[in-house]
């Protein structure tokens, strides 16, 4: 990779890192404002509504962790860290966050909402986006393990030479 290409790649990684920070802070800030809205509106049972909102937002928190992990990995690449270990760690973290967020979105939220007294909830929510994110998360986690194995194999091959 030429020096200009490397500098441009690192600049783009830094820019994406700041974009990830902006997204996590802005969406996280909006989620944090929800309890304030309940208390300001003078709701009859603000604690129950707050608990329902926390349950409803839990997949979003996992998705935001995935975005934060991507931004963190790109920030490390911008500082010059090696791609292979950074990529494998990021893929595993992002994969777990997306996978658990998708599972929680499809199966967990509806059942937890039923426990909190929401009669409209069913046993499973047919959420294609959540299912897709769960599958992509599982694939990313497995790809992170493949990259780890490739790194170990490369190290073993380097020792032979």
Account of the 3D structure:
By secondary structure, the chain is an all-alpha fold. It has 4 helices and no strands. It is 86% helix and 0% strand. The longest helix has 39 residues, at 3-41. The mean pLDDT is 87.
Spell out the key features of this protein:
4 helices; mainly alpha; elongated; 86% helix; 161 residues
Write the layout of secondary structure elements.
Elements lengths: L2 H39 L4 H33 L4 H33 L12 H33 L1
Radius of gyration: 20 Å
- Biggest pleated-sheet summary: none
**For the residues shown, what is the average pLDDT?**
87
Helix and strand string, N-terminal first? HHHH
Termini gap: 24 Å
What's the helix count?
Answer: 4
Q: Strand pairing plus helix content: what structural class?
A: mainly alpha
Query: Are there runs of 5+ residues with pLDDT below 50, and where?
Result: none
Summarize this, please?
The protein has 161 residues and is mainly alpha-helical. It has helices at residues 3-41, 46-78, 83-115, 128-160. The protein has 4 helices and no strands.
